[in-house]
Write a structure and sequence with these properties.
about 120 residues; about 55% strand; mainly beta; 11 strands
Length: about 120
Amino acid sequence: QVQLVESGGGSVQAGASLRLSCAASTRAFSRYDAGWFRQAPGKEREFVSAITWSTSSTFYADSVKGRFTISRDFAKNTVYLQMNSLRPEDTAVYYCAAGSRAAASYDYWGQGTQVTVSS
């Protein structure tokens, strides 16, 4: 069982930056791919970014490519999402997940952290 806790959300102006963190309860997290997803009000949850456990390969949605950077610190059992040049359309609840990116199957989810970007 892997428990995930996100932090770092907040309310910012457009153009600002935030760094989200996802802390895992166990070192077993290091053997999972990690992903960030988001859900805006009235919309379905969407993929934002992922990082694989084996090679630390990274993947991004087109909407965040060039602005967001995913990384992980194995020693701290933590995955980060650095978000730069934030836009109002980035407003959503952001969720961290652990699982298999290739299988598009994430078994463990955090509770989410709110990001609000105002224009």
